[in-house]
Amino acid sequence: MSAASRAPLRSNRTNARVRRRAALTTGAAVAALLVSACSSGGTSGGGGQTGFITGSDGIATVKKGDRADAPDLSGETVDGGRLDVDAYKGKVVVLNVWGSWCPPCRAEAKNFEKVYQDVKDQGVQFVGINTRDTSTGPARAFEKEYGVTYPSLYDPTGKLMLRFEKGTLNPQAIPSTLVIDREGKVAARTLQALSEEKLRKMLDPVLAEK
C-alpha cells in the first residue's frame, strides 16, 4: 500500500478518535448538569446573612429573634387551583421544593405524606413548590403515584424560589425543605432529601414553640 493510500486511513482513524472524545466530553457535561439540577445533599444556600446555623445532619435553624419573613408565595397550583401561603399564617408551614424528574424527590415523597397525615390536625400545613416540570401533567402523575394530598404551587421557572432572601435557598439544590413558623418567618431549612425521622426532627422544635 502506498503512502498516499495509507494517509486517508490514518485521517479517518484520527477523526473517529476526535468524535469519540467529543461525545465523551458532551456526555460528561450533560451528566454534570443533571447532578447540579437534582441534588440529594448540600448545605450552602449561596451567601447572604440569613442567620442559619447548620448542624451535622444538614438541618439549618435560625433563632426566633433572627428569622426573616417568608416572601409572597402565591399562584397557580399543580391541580389548577389558586393558593396563597400567607393564608396559613398562624400555622406552621412545611414547604417542600420538588420536581417529578428528581429521584431524591421520589425517595422522600412518601415520608412527607406520612408526616403530614400525622400532624395536619396540630396546626401544621404542608405545601409543595413544583419546579422545572414543563407542564403540570408529570407533576399530577407524581402526586397520584406517591399519594401526595397536600397542595403544590406550580413554579416551572423557579421564580418563587428566587423571592427568598439571598442565602435561604439554593436553586440548584432540589429537593429543599423549609419550615415557616406561625408568624410567617423562616425557622429552618435543609437542602437535601429527608427521611421521615429527619423531617420530624426538623419540624418538631418549631411546632413546640409557643
Share of helix, binned:
25-40%
Shape: globular
Share of β-strand residues? 15-25%
Number of helix segments?
4
Biggest sheet strand order reads: 1-2-9-8-5-6-7
From N to C, what is the helix and strand string? HEEEEEHEHEEEH
Largest β-sheet summary = 7 strands, mixed
Q: Provide the gyration radius in Å.
A: 22 Å
Total beta strand runs: 9
**Low-confidence sequence ranges:** 22-37, 40-48
Structural class by SSE content: alpha+beta
- What's the end-to-end separation, in Å? 90 Å
Overall mean pLDDT: 85
Could you state the oligomeric state of the chains shown? single chain
Organism: Streptomyces viridiviolaceus
Main location: other
InterPro entries: Redoxin, Thioredoxin-like_sf, Thioredoxin_CS, Thioredoxin_domain, Thioredoxin_ResA/DsbE_sf
Keywords: Cytochrome c-type biogenesis, Disulfide bond, Redox-active center, Signal-anchor, Transmembrane
Please tell me about this protein's structure.
It is built from 4 helices and 9 strands, in the order H-E-E-E-E-E-H-E-H-E-E-E-H. Helix content is 36%, strand content 19%. The model is unreliable at 22-37 and 40-48 (pLDDT under 50). It starts with a helix and ends with a helix. The protein has 210 residues and is an alpha+beta fold. The protein has helices spanning 3-37, 103-119, 136-146, 196-208, and strands at 53-54, 60-61, 74-76, 82-84, 92-98, 124-131, 152-155, 176-180, 186-190. Strands 1-2-9-8-5-6-7 form a 7-stranded mixed sheet, with helices on one face.
